[in-house]
Specification:
Number of helices: 4
Distance between the termini: 26 Å
Strand order of the largest sheet: 3-2-1-4-8
Order of helices and strands: EEEHEHEEEEHEHEEEEE
Mean pLDDT: 87
Strand content: 35-45%
Helix content: 10-25%
Largest sheet: 5 strands, antiparallel
Shape: globular
Low-confidence stretches: none
Structural class: alpha+beta
Radius of gyration: 20 Å
């Protein structure tokens, strides 16, 4: 949920972007996974997790025509954080239920279709690749966002062979620059 919920749009008039698409598919290793896909029109987020069992054709059809609302995902995240138990997921035509031994959470699904993200992914020309330490990157993000102007959230990312430089400018506070070690393949790049 944390890997995808941020990319759900808040614009209610764009029905295909205000929820998360959940589908069963097979990963690159050939194992069944549940894949959650979200987009707000600018960002696309995909997260997969392994699961046991198989979704029936009826449930697959429901999920193909319905989206999980952002508010339900945020509540589910809280419930999952407080329970380490296994969850059973049930789907109706317009509703879903997440249930564990001590809790049942039911919500309505949103009618809509996720945009064809595979078409978007097939057009990408990804020639650069970086491996970063997630916790270190999150720590830098907290510092840089404490400094940036809320109206102008421009942050630069400079990738080179051995490091990533994150920088931002603020008229009131000056310039922020911080580097972290990374593993990078490709041409030097600034975003």
């Amino acid at each position: 949920i944390d890997e995808t919920v941020f990319a759900i749009s808040d614009e209610l008039e764009r029905a295909s972007l205000i929820g998360a698409n959940l589908e069963q598919c097979t990963n690159e290793e050939g194992y069944p996974v549940l894949r959650m896909v979200t987009t707000d029109g600018n960002r696309l987020s995909i997260s997969e997790t392994s699961f046991e069992g198989e979704l029936s054709d009826e449930i697959a059809t429901i999920l193909n025509n319905m989206l999980i609302p952002k508010s339900a995902l945020l509540e589910l995240r809280k419930l999952c954080d407080s329970s380490g138990e296994e969850w059973v997921i049930n789907f109706g035509v317009q509703e879903a239920e997440f249930q564990c031994e001590s809790t049942a959470f039911q919500f309505l699904l949103i009618e809509g279709h996720c945009p064809d993200y595979n078409r978007i992914l097939s057009t990408l020309n990804l020639t650069n690749s970086a491996i970063v330490n997630r916790k270190q990157l999150q720590s830098i993000f907290k510092r840089v966002f404490a400094m940036v102007n809320r109206r102008d959230l421009s942050v630069s990312f400079g990738f080179s062979e051995d490091f990533l430089e994150i920088s931002a400018e603020n008229a009131d506070f000056g310039t922020f620059k911080e580097q972290m070690s990374i593993s990078f393949e490709g041409d030097e790049l600034t975003i």
